[in-house]
Specification:
Elements lengths: L12 H6 L2 H20 L11 H13 L12 H37 L4 E6 L2 E7 H26 L1 E2 L15 H7 L4 E2 L3 H6 L2 H28 L6 E2 L18 H24 L12 H26 L1 E2 L1 H10 L4 H10 L4 H18 L8 H7 L7 H5 L1 H6 L9 H16 L2
Parallel strand pairs: 3-4
Antiparallel strand pairs: 1-2, 5-6
């Protein structure tokens, strides 16, 4: 509540005409005392009072007398509620961004450690082409940086002050809405009094940003679940982020990621609640809008909980580099490079594609990979093959040959890492 700090010095002449100076000082001191007692637990909300605003006014009047009855001058609960929600959400966005930034730094650290950890890249959940774990992790870095940008944009559009709009049509008192906005660290007042009390776009925008953030965490969680399975065994989670089975002693279940995946649906549901609540409301305030708080606060709580868990879970996971590379080798993800080898020898691509397909089929029949297939078998398929084919289809060659910007080669990943670190440092 830093806006109390210099309130005395910033009182305007107009306010002095409405509220005598002595009463103003009593109100300020009384409000500070109420705030301190609420924070310490010495003062508890009275559940019999209609709402927080009436509770504060009644408590203030009890403490300072009739001066407390002036508190509600030029105010309505409509503009006060709209103000309070914005103030709370502004702080919550800042907290969520801190958690997000910590996760981003963890991801970059993991990527830096695995620039040479080769793994299969997938399409349709089928092994497709070689990448590195660093390249894979960086894909999530860019997703989460976009999430951070959406939170920033939401905070900017939300940072306008509704106070002074009254119930819906402003007030006859000579108040200074611009000064109020400055004291509360808003960009400016909301321009229209009807919009000021009926707008909950900022709740929807925040819920949307959080839903997309959760979708990204959920996609990553799904991959972690797959990677933990015996079918992949690419990583192992620390025991703190997995549980056993009640009857199967061999099980180590990635429950945390499953919970995050499930909570994503909950946050998306909160967004749907807000959109559904608003879609049929005429201007200005309607009681339906009380539903905004449960939905947006729940979305915030779930997102914060998941971010707080996701970061240390990734920081403590163990990567099985050997299994990742073995999966890349067995998936024929260098088949495209084998075909390219023949194209560079002068064959049309379609012929090269067909020849490589027959070689892959032969490897499958004989339990081999393109890297272990004898040169004799290569030459039986096409005379253009020579011993240098093994260099051409080596996973490292396939990987580092993809030098286009944003690709998985060592040089491209190095550039990505530098750009990601710079973007995170600039947040």
């Amino acid at each position: 509540m830093s806006f109390f700090k210099d309130f005395k010095e910033d009182l305007t002449q107009a306010v002095n005409e409405l509220i005598p100076e002595d009463d103003a000082q009593k109100i300020i001191a009384g409000l500070k005392g109420i705030l301190a007692d609420l924070d310490s637990g010495d003062l508890l909300m009275d559940p019999t009072v209609e709402d927080i605003h009436m509770f504060v006014e009644a408590e203030l009047t009890k403490r300072i007398g009739d001066a407390g009855k002036r508190l509600h001058t030029a105010r309505s609960r409509n503009d006060q509620v709209a103000l309070d929600v914005r103030l709370i959400l502004r702080d919550e966005i800042a907290e969520i961004r801190k958690l997000l930034h910590a996760l981003l730094r963890t991801l970059v650290k993991i990527a830096e450690q695995h620039t040479e950890t080769i793994m299969p890249g997938y399409t349709h959940l089928q092994r497709a082409q070689p990448v590195t774990l660093a390249h894979h992790i960086l894909a999530y870095v860019w997703m989460l940086l976009r999430d951070d940008g959406r939170l920033v944009d939401t905070a900017k559009r939300m940072n306008y002050c509704p106070l002074g709009a009254g119930a819906l049509a402003g007030t006859t008192y000579p108040i200074n809405r611009k000064q109020t906005a400055v004291l509360l660290e808003f960009t400016a007042p909301v321009p229209n009094s009807l919009d000021a009390v009926s707008d909950r776009d900022f709740c929807v925008e925040l819920a949307n940003a959080l839903s997309l953030l959760m979708v990204h965490l959920s996609r990553f969680s799904e991959e972690i679940i797959l990677w933990c399975s015996w079918e992949f065994k690419f990583i192992e989670l620390d025991d703190a982020y997995a549980t056993g089975s009640s009857i199967m002693p061999q099980k180590k279940n990635p429950d945390v990621t499953e919970l995050i995946r499930g909570k994503t649906g909950r946050v998306i549901g909160d967004l749907t609640t807000l959109l559904s609540m608003l879609k049929g409301l005429p201007l200005a305030y309607n009681k339906d809008m009380q539903e905004d708080k449960e939905a947006i606060f729940d979305a915030i709580d779930q997102a914060k909980l998941c971010l707080k868990t996701f970061d240390p879970m990734l920081a403590t996971m163990r990567v099985n580099k050997e299994n990742m590379r073995a999966a890349a080798a067995k998936g024929f993800i260098n088949a495209t490079d084998c075909a390219d080898y023949l194209v560079k020898k002068g064959l049309p691509f379609r012929d090269a594609y067909k020849i490589t397909g027959t070689l892959v089929a032969r490897c499958i029949r004989e339990g081999l990979t393109l890297e272990t297939l004898p040169i004799k078998s290569y030459k039986e398929a096409c005379d253009s093959f020579d011993q240098d084919v093994y260099d051409a289809i080596a996973l490292e060659t396939c990987l580092n040959g993809r030098i286009s910007e944003g690709g998985p080669s060592a040089a491209a990943v190095k550039d990505q890492l530098a750009a990601a670190k710079a973007a995170i440092e600039a947040l």
